[in-house]
């Protein structure tokens, strides 16, 4: 009896969801957008892990690469990692000797996250390798198609921003 009620409830929910989606076509777009993001994230993360990093560690190293370092607030904004989580990531990268914390001249209240020479060497190795890996997923699209997708996504993002 309990299984039958669960099955009926699930079937009704599915029917209601399909009816709502039919009335609200944008829901199908949101689903595709979310599924595309999750597929990309899984594809990217698998390769990053093969490089010996977590996706968040790679994001920090890629963001700090070819810079003089940056404050955690700026790094959090560029990587979309919260400051609380970012502190732990910086701690672990510091333990690995890849990142250091430096106090900027004239501002002893904050610090910059900076790649160490070992971090710069790792960036020079893993960033181009990951770009080549990601490029494989885009080989079937031509430049015009990619530009159209970029413009569409930019327009969609603009609808959600102030």
Question: Could you give a quick summary of the protein structure above?
Answer:
This protein is mainly α and 162 residues long. Helices cover 71% and strands 6% of the residues.
Largest sheet strand order? 1-3-2
**Low-pLDDT sequence parts:** none
Average pLDDT over all residues? 88
What's the shape? elongated
Helix content: over 70%
Listing every helix as H and every strand as E from the N terminus to the C terminus, the arrangement reads HHHEHHEEHH
Rg for CA atoms: 22 Å
What does the main sheet amount to?
Answer: 3 strands, antiparallel
Number of strands: 3
Question: What fraction strand?
Answer: 5-15%
Keywords, please?
three-stranded antiparallel β-sheet, mainly alpha, 162 residues, 71% helix, 7 helices
Structure explained in plain terms:
- By secondary structure, the protein is mostly helical.
- It has helices at 2-23, 26-50, 55-64, 72-79, 83-95, 117-135, 143-160, and strands at residues 70-71, 99-102, 112-115.
- It has a three-stranded antiparallel β-sheet.
- The longest helix is centred in the first third of the chain and has 25 residues, at 26-50.
- It is elongated, with a radius of gyration of 22 Å.
